[in-house]
Amino acid sequence: MPTILAYDARFEDELIALLGRDPDWADFTKADTLEVFKTALSTSRTYLCADRGCVCGYLRAVVDGFGLYVSELYVAPHARRAGHGKALLARIKQDHPDRPVYVLSDEDWYYEALGLTRSGSVFDL
């Protein structure tokens, strides 16, 4: 069972190392983007997923007066298909039951498999 934590900078290095090992996500950890990414993590609604004491994923959402917009959802390849992404999505919805939560997606098949409903160019959580 994964543990979902509100973002804490104490886990920043572990998360950055995790993303740096994944070629599809390594752009977030490059020298010219790293500080922007760190700022985004701390100024957005960010959650970490830990399994067996190690960070294995995260979710970052942008918040405005209209709702929350999940811009990034990542689970490490070795931890996929264990419900971690679903747990991250459930946590943000649980923490914000009266606000709409939308998912910005480039992996539509995943959100469709979870049963989310498309609303224009986003998915409703």
Question: Quick summary of this structure?
Answer:
By secondary structure, the protein is of the alpha+beta class. Helices cover 30% and strands 33% of the residues.
Mind summarizing the main beta sheet? 7 strands, mixed
Numbering strands along the chain, what is their spatial order in the largest sheet? 1-2-3-4-5-7-6
Distance between the termini: 21 Å
Structural class: alpha+beta
Taken from the alpha-carbon principal axes, the silhouette is globular
Computed Rg = 14 Å
| Total beta strand runs | 7
Q: What portion of residues is helical?
A: 25-40%
Which segments are poorly predicted (pLDDT under 50) over 5 or more consecutive residues? Answer: none
The portion of residues forming beta strands comes to 25-35%
- Helix count? 4
Give the averaged pLDDT, no decimals.
Answer: 93
Order of helices and strands: EHHEEEHEHEE
Q: Could you explain the architecture of this structure?
A:
By secondary structure, the protein is α+β, with helices and mostly antiparallel strands. The protein is 30% helix and 33% strand. It contains 4 helices and 7 strands, in the order βααβββαβαββ. The protein has a 7-stranded mixed beta sheet, with helices on both faces. Strand 6 and strand 7 form a beta hairpin. The longest helix is centred in the last third of the chain and has 12 residues.
Features:
7 strands; single chain; alpha+beta; 125 residues; globular
Secondary-structure map with pairings?
Layout (H helix, E strand, L loop, with lengths): L2 E4 L5 H9 L13 H10 L1 E7 L2 E11 L2 E9 L8 H12 L5 E4 L3 H6 L3 E3 L2 E3 L1
Parallel strand pairs: 4-5
Antiparallel strand pairs: 1-2, 2-3, 3-4, 5-7, 6-7
